[in-house]
Amino acid sequence: MRTTFINWAKRMLLHVLVYALAFELLASLGAVQANSAPMDILPAGAMKPTQQGTDGHITLTPLGTYATGVFDGGASEIVAYDAATQRAFSVNATDATIDMIDISDPTAPTLISQIDVTPYGAIANSVDVYDGVLVAAIENEDKQANGSAVFFNTEGEFIA
Description:
Elements: H1 2-28, E1 47-52, E2 58-62, E3 79-82, E4 87-92, E5 97-102, E6 110-116, E7 124-130, E8 133-138, E9 148-153
Antiparallel strand pairs: 1-2, 3-4, 4-5, 5-6, 7-8, 8-9
């Protein structure tokens, strides 16, 4: 019961953070005024601003979705986006992989391939990408021991 609540709380926090970041991005682009009326919290998914109502709220509509086929598990957790390749990299704890997802057509995200992280430890806990380099925080098989940071290129090839 406690684990279910913690997972639910993590998802809700992630949703709030995503919408807060989206609001800041829209504010930086001039689409909304910073510190204006709060945004409504909507279901997760790729969103785009469609209009700003007279009440100061922004209406968001999904562009597309990507489903891993796993329900209520760790199949798509932390996501990093690489603008150069138009790919999203997602931690998939269920498969112990990093999913490489093509989002060049945001209405139809498509799995390109998966990076198996088991040669480097148990599962990936986090992922980020910058300037063509993907880094993953890999959990040790012994959860009490230190994990490692493993580097790949955006094609999924091991660097270090």
